[in-house]
Design a protein that fits this description.
Blueprint: E1 5-6, H1 16-22, H2 32-49, E2 54-59, H3 62-73, E3 79-84, H4 87-98, E4 102-107, H5 116-125, E5 131-135, E6 137-138, E7 143-144, H6 147-154, E8 161-165, E9 184-188, E10 199-204, H7 206-214, H8 224-232, H9 242-258, H10 260-280, E11 294-298, H11 305-314, E12 318-319, E13 321-322, E14 331-335, H12 342-358, H13 367-378
């Protein structure tokens, strides 16, 4: 018998209680009962986002929220600055180009965070840029970008909005949306919200709403203005993902009960233990500016990272993730969000030790596990 563990950076393991709540008999999306649930969910989303801004919900993956942000803020021929430091930074640039937006790409070496001076330079050279797009956490590399500093910088630009992909970051570490002047922040259900795929959430500032009222890019379903009108009626513009929104309500209720500081501390603790184990095993982390959302490990010399992923999945029943694009085979990634606890991290570290030994890279069995255990015991 093989037990399955999901420790990839999306989709993630979901609390069985939340799954059971979502499996209850379906209710109609235009009923007073659902409107009441939706209103409570939107209120709790503001708590998680630390914002007074409207939070819009779409039935899509997180990428739908990213596309909606481009389509609702910009017009064909506009100019946008995109921080490209991994696969998801590339996605911002690709989405802009799809809608006829001219992109100014700040290409950052994979594994490094963007230097705010690079963004300032781009803004100075392109004062007509209508938006700056970035990831809070670039999931493909494990890098954490200096979103707070950038938000404060861009706040001084009255005609430029700051758009943040926080799909794997919101709820993992502290992001003060209003205080940091983050105009549009996107998240998705399948990552840090600890749900199955199918929901995108977007917070929209007043500065961004003014831009949305003027934008001329084509949009129909992903329409901020329609959703804002529906929000005023305690409903959605189109048929929502009813069961997922009910599940989101349950997750957000748990987050409130835990408190944001404890929620962030939980993820820091899981991350710190695995990162301590990596060092104890004599391995290296890939990112120079690592996030607490994920640990990205360099495959040791002579080992293909995809083989580590394959052994864990097929032999041990543990799903982690490999590298993407030019990092394929060079790294493997262990997530710290979703329905995970310290014992899951210990299991993952133990499995990596065994897989590496099986692949010919000798790691003393128990070295990473001991470091993991010691970290948890002391923190």
């Amino acid at each position: 018998m093989k037990k399955r563990y999901l420790m990839a950076p999306g989709p993630v393991a979901v609390d069985p209680h939340v799954m059971s709540v979502m499996s209850e008999p379906l209710i109609h999306h235009r009923s007073p009962q659902f409107s009441s649930i939706l209103t409570e969910v939107r209120k709790d989303l503001k708590y998680l986002y630390q914002t007074n801004n409207d939070c819009l919900i779409f039935a899509s993956s997180g990428t739908g929220g990213m596309e909606a942000s481009v389509a609702n803020l910009l017009s064909p021929g506009d100019k946008a600055i995109c921080v490209v430091a991994g696969k998801f930074g590339e996605r911002w640039s690709e989405l802009c180009q799809t809608y006829g937006v001219e992109t100014v790409d700040i290409n950052v070496e994979w594994g490094h965070a963007v230097d705010p001076a690079q963004v300032k330079e781009a803004l100075d050279e392109h004062p007509d840029a209508k938006a700056v797009f970035i990831q809070a956490h670039e999931t493909s590399t494990g890098v954490k970008h200096p979103v707070e500093e950038l938000g404060r910088m861009i706040a001084d630009k009255p005609d430029t909005v700051f758009v943040v992909d926080a799909i794997s970051a919101l709820g993992v570490y502290d992001m003060k949306v209003d205080e940091w002047n983050l105009d549009v922040v996107v998240t998705g259900s399948q990552k840090s919200l600890s749900l199955p795929p199918g929901l995108a959430v977007v917070s929209v500032s007043e500065k961004a709403w003014k831009m949305a009222e003027k934008a001329k890019a084509p949009r129909y379903y992903f329409n901020f203005l329609k959703e804002r009108k529906a929000l005023a009626r305690e409903t959605t513009a189109y048929t929502p993902a009813v069961s997922l929104i009910i599940g989101l309500g349950e997750v957000l209720k748990q987050f409130r009960q835990m408190g944001l500081e404890n929620l962030f501390a939980h993820h820091r603790r899981l991350s710190g233990a695995v990162k301590a184990a990596v060092k104890a095993m004599g391995l290296e982390q890939f990112p120079k500016d690592p996030s607490e959302a994920i640990t990205v490990i360099c495959a040791p010399e002579g080992v293909n990272g995809q083989d580590v992923v394959k052994i864990l999945r097929e032999d041990y029943g543990i799903t982690i993730a490999g590298g993407q694009a030019q990092l394929k085979g060079k790294i493997f990634r262990i997530s710290h969000y979703g329905y995970l606890c310290e014992w899951d991290m210990i299991i993952a570290v133990a499995a990596v030790e065994r897989a590496l030994n099986e692949l010919g890279h000798k790691v003393p069995l128990g070295s990473g596990v001991a470091a993991c255990q010691e970290y948890f015991a002391n923190n």
